[in-house]
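A favour between colleagues. Tell me how you read the following sequence-structure pair.

===
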Amino acid sequence: MGRDYFQITLIVLGFIATSLFAVFVWREAFPEYKIYQKNYVALEKFRSTYTGEAPPDFSIGIKQIVILKEDKGPAKIDRCISCHVALEYSHFSATKIARDLNGNIIYNEDGIPKQITNEDDVWARLDLEILKLEKSNQNSEAEKLRSLKTAHVNGNIFDVKKVLKMHPLMGAETRPFEFHPIEEYGCTSCHNGNGLGLTTIKRMDLFLMGSMKLNLRGLYLNLMKRMSSMTRNSLKITTENRVMMYYFKPHLFLLGL
């Protein structure tokens, strides 16, 4: 009886070990970040169909930012860009900088560049193409394009539009990371989180509450008024300005506000 129990125990433990190893192999072979990267490549190919431009070169794989410390301590590594690969691309933004007929930037009364609807927004163009295909009863082709908008990960469905999205312009910036270069600051120094992580981290329920979103947005807009005259030098030097801009806006960005 004791011998049979021992054999059963070994069989159960072997099954558990094999299952865990299989999960590990599956996650390594089909990592979450590849879903977003493949969607990005497909979106660039779709964009080339109406711009006539060749899709940019892109290699599937882990992307990371390495920030060396002045004290020669362990380097800071951020791999957020393995999923968020479109942070610097204007065609992944619903808005763009407004310009006059001569190409000059139009500023508002606070010295902040005005933003208008971006007709080159790849997500807006994708929706239009889906509607066009549906009207012509090309439902299978429409469904292929629609599938680029969501990612199915471990039984969860994620909105790819929030992942493949240009980083919002901060203050008087005219392009992403103009005043806070991503290669110098990385991602987690502002957004927090696990820089080495390559899977979706569940957000706190507190930040999913509607009232919290409104309060954060209202507070951020008030802070932006105070920073409207900010220059590149003051943005990088003034600690108070850095804290105000880098603490509140990233949370709204993550919430899709």
Remarks:
- The two ends are 64 Å apart (CA to CA).
- DSSP finds nine helices and six strands in the chain.
- Confidence is low (pLDDT under 50) at residues 202-215, 229-257.
